[in-house]
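ok so i was messing around last nite and threw this chain in just to see what happens. nothing serious, just curious
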Amino acid sequence: QQLVEANKSNLTLEQKITKLERIEPGWIVKQLSDLRKSAYKQYSDFKERFSKTGNTNTPQEFLDFEIALNKLDGSNQLRDGVDMLSALDQVKSTVTGIENRYEEQKTGRKTEIQSLKTEVLATLEKYIKEMNMAKGTQYSGLFRESALGVQKKITDAETSITGEQEVYQMKMNELDKTRKNILATLSGLKNESESKYEVVTKALEQTNVDDGKRKTVNEKIQIAKGMIDSGEYVNALRAMSAIAKELDEIQAQPQGNNF
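result:
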């Protein structure tokens, strides 16, 4: 009862502490001990929250709190308790700010990865289709990426969202390199098929052949051109290789047999 009355009086803080100490010797020591335990628990929670942001360094505010805590341990003085609480407030402010920046960073990274992932998946289906068509042909060696490999790189990039910047950037670079490889392979096949189309078209023009045969070969060439237009580059190349071989055979025949 005396403790409650002393605490509710209009005395200054120091006067209250003095009066309370007279009523219950060691009261301030007990209060500071409880305060220390509570502050240290909060500090531990802040450290855990900080570690979840992917940071590995130790902020100066953490060191300052530990110094204030140790000072209180050695003094059991109220002023050192106040300093400790002030240092804890700085820890809270620092961790909260870092968490806010971390969430903003995660949001930005998610947007970047989703954009890159969308680009990769937009061409992967065509790439895999072309790769399957190229099996057993001279073009099979052009395909260095696999569906499983690409998916793993996407997963690795998504996992790195909460990691360190260096790891995140490395995984993004790997995925972007895959994107470029896919585009380069498809672009190379497209260019080669268009070039071969021009070659066989010109070869037909220069081949001495009857109109019926010319029409038949030209129809084959146009079918191959349709494959190019629809993105079936490997099939187009295979078709035009067969056409080129057919024209070579026509050229090799005695001229009289072409009419």
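not much to say yet. The chain is about 80% helix and 0% strand.
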